[in-house]
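Appendix C reproduces, verbatim, an entry submitted by the partner laboratory led by Prof. M.T., so that reviewers can inspect both the input and the predicted structure.
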Amino acid sequence: MTDPSRDVSPVDTIVARGLTKSFGAVRAVRELDLTLQRGTSVALLGPNGAGKTTTIDMLIGLTKPDAGTVSLFGRSPNEAVKAGLIGAMTQTGQLIDYLSVRELVTMMAAIYPAPLAVDEALSISGADAFADRQTRKLSGGETQRVRFAIALVANAELLVLDEPTAALDVEGRRDFWNAMRAFAARGKTVVFATHYLEEADAYADRIVLISHGRIAADGAPTEIKATVGGRIIRATLPDVESSNLQALRGVTAVDRKGDAITLNSNDSDATLRDLLNTFASVRDIEVRGAGLEEAFLELTLDSDGADS
């Protein structure tokens, strides 16, 4: 039998309007508007202190905004949480001591009206390998897996994850995102904040870039990258001053690490011609389009940081 309290109308998952939050003189989030559709995977990106965690906390009701409104499936955050529609994995809080992992996840499952089977949550998160170990004896990466299992066991319509792969090694991060693919394939909505740009690029349907408490860019990863014109040229070129490279046509930025150079160019054809004609010793040339990292840096630098 379905729980009528979990019924969700076919409305947008999240609708936030004018969200504002200050901590003393620091304006963490400034009149932020955000609408997220059901069944999508959305990455929140931004430099440290941009307002990502504060935004997440307001969306799920952990922090009350100074101004603005939040609606989740047409309900208030508190109502959505009570109905078991939200599963969250936050950066704060500790696991309860003197319980095994299985006991903790079982206890959390009892809170929700229609939880996922405990064994399934443990399996998806990868915590089944140490399910009988006490929580106080876990490594940092294992603790993250348990946090993920707790979020999953809610069997929620919306899963909110704040820096979910922090403390995980490369293999752990890969396993995590494989699990997330399986979760999203069920038609669930996933919102995650991360400082790993490659994760956002690879796994998000949509990226919301936050800088100084405001949305600096919003769109598919390809759209975000397209906002930065030009190309990146990499090559090996010893014993050349950066000022000489800066003088090449089209070059907007120069970076050197040993004999390796990286040129940002808004006219790659002209830059390549000058590079080859001017420096006979240049070799190992690579040309690619600007990536998410370049877009991230340009868009966050362009954002207004006044009174932040």
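The radius of gyration is 23 Å. Additional entries are available on request from the coordinating office.
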